[in-house]
Amino acid sequence: MLNVIQGDTVFITTGAGTVGSLVVQLAKLEGLKVIASAGSDDKNTSTCEVLEKEGPINMQAFICFWDNVGGEILDTAFNTAVAGARFIECGMISVYNLEPYPIKNIGQVVGKQLKIFGFIWSSLASKYEAQFYEEMPANISRGEIKYQEDKTIGLEHVGEALLAVLMGKNTGESVIIVAEE
Ligand SMILES: NC(=O)c1ccc[n+]([C@@H]2O[C@H](COP(=O)([O-])OP(=O)(O)OC[C@H]3O[C@@H](n4cnc5c(N)ncnc54)[C@H](OP(=O)(O)O)[C@@H]3O)[C@@H](O)[C@H]2O)c1
């Protein structure tokens, strides 16, 4: 989906989350330079610090921004991007429960000829599912892809687990263990 070439830079938000950490690892496997952001202090330095050090994001013809957060960081990325950058809009977790964030830099989409692709996984599943199940177990067994689960035991704690996800307190996929076998 990234459709990029080796050496391109990809910027990925929620780099410590389930989707983000997988995209980070897949991008590295493809030989891309990865800049990732994470909200919690113990997961990363601040996004602004990273962008200051690495940015403006080193945009080549096929550079990508993989966005799981939306809102302010998306607005910043419109401003930081250079001409022709591609934005993959996977999620908008920063604004799910809030008023829509007032994006100020939307004009850059025209000026910089940015390409924005939003998607829902189910619409792409039929095209990529077979490839995913063919490649991903092998990637995991070779240790090329690692994942972490943040386990909560008991269905009665599902509310706390959901809150932790929305507050950025989980590290890895949040899994509810309903019953031990
Ligand atoms: N398009 C699709 O089909 C599809 C499918 C699955 C998921 N998604 C989207 O992908 C995104 C990540 O999902 P996931 O399953 O990887 O979730 P996850 O593992 O629970 O990670 C979510 C992470 O988002 C970060 N976060 C939460 N609130 C935030 C905020 N206000 N601002 C910035 N970061 C915030 C937190 O990480 P930090 O502590 O690092 O901030 C949190 O750990 C979500 O937006 C989700 O809706 C899209």
From TrEMBL:
GO MF, one example: oxidoreductase activity, acting on the CH-CH group of donors, NAD or NADP as acceptor
InterPro entries assigned: MDR_fam, NAD(P)-bd_dom_sf
PANTHER family for this protein: PROSTAGLANDIN REDUCTASE (PTHR43205), PROSTAGLANDIN REDUCTASE 1 (PTHR43205:SF7)
Protein name (record): Alcohol dehydrogenase-like C-terminal domain-containing protein
Organism: Piloderma croceum (strain F 1598)
